[in-house]
# Entry
Amino acid sequence: MPYPELTGRKPGTGSQVMRKVVHAARKIQYSRQGDGTTNSSLATKGLKAFCDLTDACLLLMRQAMTELGLSARAYDKVRRVARTIADLEGEAEIKEHHLAEGIQYRLLDRKF
# Structure
């Protein structure tokens, strides 16, 4: 989160609101996957079925893998995270900004 947002006077999302958003995202995952599986535990078959990437997303992912040296394992992890971010926003499709955010989180894993 950028420093000005952390130090600003604008209130952030409250715990109650965030709880509702997370519950709604989980509900989406359970109904889409059909067996109570969350995005974090999707196997390869589930990734192919539920984490399909648009051409623009594939281009972004290729660039990230090439320039940042992401592995095939990281590719799958980023897709899972991007799918979850899309679910939190109530989006049916993974969009470029979901994928970009997922890539950023993966890079944070490397630093810490």
Notes: The two ends are 16 Å apart (CA to CA). Helices lie at 3-7, 15-33, 44-50, 55-68, 72-88, 96-111.
